Each structure stands twice: as C-alpha cells, then as structure tokens.
Amino acid sequence: MDNVVVTGMQRISVVGTSGSGKSTLARRIADRLAVPYIELDAIHHRPGWKAMSEKEFRAAVADRITGDTWVVDGNYFGKLGDLVWSRADTVVWFDLPRALVMRQITARTLRRALTRRELWNGNREDLRNMVSLDPQRSVIVWAWQTHTANRERYLTARHAPEYAHLRFVRLGSRRETDAFLGEL
C-alpha cells in the first residue's frame, strides 16, 4: 500500500479490473465511513443487459455525485471520462495481480451462473458466457484483456497534472487492503 493518510476522504472513486474485488472493497469503505455507495454497473446495466446511453449514464452519475460524501465503484472512463474524478478527492485503486484476479473472477462467475443470482435490474450471469471469447459477453475475457491497460492507465493518472487534486491509494494485496480498512 502506498503511504497515505486516510483522514479527510469524503468522495472516493474505487477502481480496478473486473473481478479484483473492487465492489466488495467499495461497499466496505462506504460502510466504514457511513457514506452513500454508488455502483456504476447497477446504473449502467438496464434489464436484459441493455446499456444505458452515454448521455443518460453521464446524467444519472452526475446526479448521484452531487453530494458531499460518497464512494463510487467502477471504471467506465470510456463513457464518463473524468466526471467522477473531477468531483472525487481520493482514488482507491485495487491493483491485484492478474493471476489472482483471474482465479477470483472465474470462481465468482461460475458461482453466480450456477446460483442464478440477480446482479442488477434482473440481470444474471449465464454459463454460456463463461466459454465465450467475446469480451462483450464474457466478463472473464474482459478482465483478462483489460488488466494491463487498467494498470497502465492508473499508473499514468497518478502523476497526471489534471489529477493533482486527487489522493491515490494503490492496494496490491488483501493484507494491504485490510490495513487500509483498519485505518478508516
């Protein structure tokens, strides 16, 4: 974990590769700080896995981040740009090794598909998508393909002048995550 003082965090963006555990981490942070939790996937994915239009998505997210305190869970830079980061004061980057992320996302996807657990708006993971090589259908392939790009994006963003107002916290292990949460 980067050396960081955790006091003063009020508007937090939690990012990382799909399957890293960022949603669980974001919920835990929101619970510890007693602030609203905003899950971008739940906003973006309408029934039948239909994506919200970029314009509607930006408006819905902009509306939810007007408050003084929140934790936003998710990436979505392609659709949101720096909308969330322009209001955030902290970015928590869950940067687990690719091999661990792949084990986690495979197990999670299988568990969700077998139990038919509802994710958002009636959507459920499908076993057929586990064997698809299409990253738009398989979250496992998506995680594999985006892991390196996410790491490069966040490594670069930490030193970008447009994000100088942000405190970056990079968590690279469960131990670092537990220590970080213990300081909240």
UniProtKB/TrEMBL annotation:
Q: Which residues form the ATPase AAA-type core domain?
A: 14-61
Query: What InterPro entries does the record point to?
Result: ATPase_AAA_core (IPR003959), Cytidylate_Kinase-2 (IPR052922), P-loop_NTPase (IPR027417)
Q: Which domain of life is it from?
A: Bacteria
Q: Which Pfam families match?
A: AAA
Any single GO molecular-function term of the entry would be: ATP binding
The family database entries (PANTHER family) matched by this protein are listed as: TOXIN, YALI0E33011P
Q: What is this protein called?
A: ATPase AAA-type core domain-containing protein
Q: Which organism is it from?
A: Nocardia aurantia
